[in-house]
Amino acid sequence: MSALQKTKCKSPYKMKYSAPTQFKGANSKNSKCWDGYKKVGTKPSPSGTGETVNDCKKI
Known about the structure:
Strand content: 25-35%
Shape: flat
Helix content: under 10%
Strand order of the largest sheet: 1-2
Structural class: mainly beta
Number of helices: 1
Number of strands: 2
């Protein structure tokens, strides 16, 4: 068995991006709230990039 086969992920979930460098960050347009949380609006990103992120509250 090769080293690549040993490290290959067998998860049923697929990443939207093939490489981490293609991911530009989560914002209110491309993400959702965690299970058990509900979106109640949006708020400015805490990182100060000018983007908006989901404002999620626990159900």
